[in-house]
Amino acid sequence: MDLRGLKTFLTIVKLGNFQQAAQELRYAQSTVTMQIQKLERDLGVTLFERGKSFRLTEAGRICSEQSAHILRDVDQLQNTMSDITLGESGSILIGAMEPAASFRLPNILAAFMERHPKVQISIQIGNTCTLTELTLKGEIDFAISSVPTTSSGLTFDPLFSEPLVLLVPSVNPLAVKQDITIQDLKGERFLVTSRECVFRKKLSILLQKIGTSYTTLEINSLAALKYYVQANHGIALVPAATVTPAPAGTAVKIVQDLNLDLEVGFLRSSERTTFGIAEEKLFAFLRKSLCVF
Q: Which of 24, 79, 165, 209 pairs with 225 at a CA distance of 20 to 30 A?
C-alpha cells in the first residue's frame, strides 16, 4: 500500500472534493484519480461511491477512521529518524563512578539535556570493576571511571584527576596540625571501603608507606565514611568533592609528602567502531565540561 495514496485519500475526505485535494497536494487531478484507483486495488475495496455527489462507501468510512493514525505514526517515525540522524534524538547508556556520578554529572547532564531534550540518557552507577565489565559486555555505551585493571578490549581516555584528601575528626590532634606527613599518620585507625573500591586501593599505597603502625575499620560505603569520621571512629582518605565544605565535626587535611590523586577518564570498548551522533555529542560535551576539574 502506497502511503502517498493514503495521504491523498485522507485529503479528499477532509476537503470533500477530488479537485480541491489535487490543488492542495499540487497534483494533476488525473494523478489523484490514479492514486485512489491504485489504493482501492491494493485494499481490494471501493472507497468512494461513483456519482455526482461525494460519498464514502462503508469501506471508505472505516479506512478514513483507521488510517489517520497510520499517517501520524509514519510522520512521527520520520521525524524521529531525522532527529537521530542529526543527533537530536536517541538513547544512551552511560556508566559513572562516584563521586563523579553524584557531584559532577547532575549539573552537566542538565545542561546537555536542556540543549537536546529528545535524547534519553540512562546512568549506571558503580565502581570501576563493575563499569569495566558492563562496558566489555556492551551493556553500557561508555563509562566515566578510573583506569581499569585490564586494558584488553578497552580504551581509556584520561579526563581529570580526582583529588583525595584526609578527613579527620575535629577532636583528633591532626585536625589542628598545619603540615601533615605520612609519619604523622602512624598509630591512627583508618576507615576503609571494600577491597574492590578504587579508593581502598589508593589507600593501600598510603598504608604500605606507613608500615604496620595502624588499624582499620572496614565500611562498605564511600558515602558513609564521613559519618563515621564525625563519630570519631577514625580517619579516612576520601575524594575532596565529597567533603567540600568539611562536614561538621571534621577537618579536611592534605598529606604533604603524598600524591594520591585518582585519574578519571572515559572508558569505551575498543571493539566498537561506530557511534551514534547523539552519543558523540554527549561524549564531546562531557569532555569539555569535565576537563575543567
A: 209
Q: Which residue, chain included where needed, has cell 492542495?
A: 24
What's the residue count for the chain?
293
The contacts of residue 9 (CB under 8 Å, 6+ apart) are 35, 36, 39, 47, 63, 64, 67
In angstroms, the CA 38 to CA 3 distance is 11
Q: Is the pTM of this model over 0.85?
A: no
Cell digits for 41? 486495488
Q: What is the pLDDT of residues 37-80, one digit of tens each?
A: 888 898 888 988 876 667 888 888 888 888 877 877 777 766 66
For 109-147, how does the pLDDT look when each residue is reduced to its tens digit (9 = 90+)? 999 999 988 888 999 999 999 999 999 999 999 999 999
Q: What is the dihedral of CA 259, 193, 214, 241, to 10 degrees?
A: 40
Assign 189 a pLDDT band (cuts: 50, 70, 90): very high
Q: Which residues pair with 182 in a beta bridge?
A: none
State how far the Cα of 234 lies from the Cα of 216, in Å rounded to an integer.
8
Residue with cell 501520524: 72
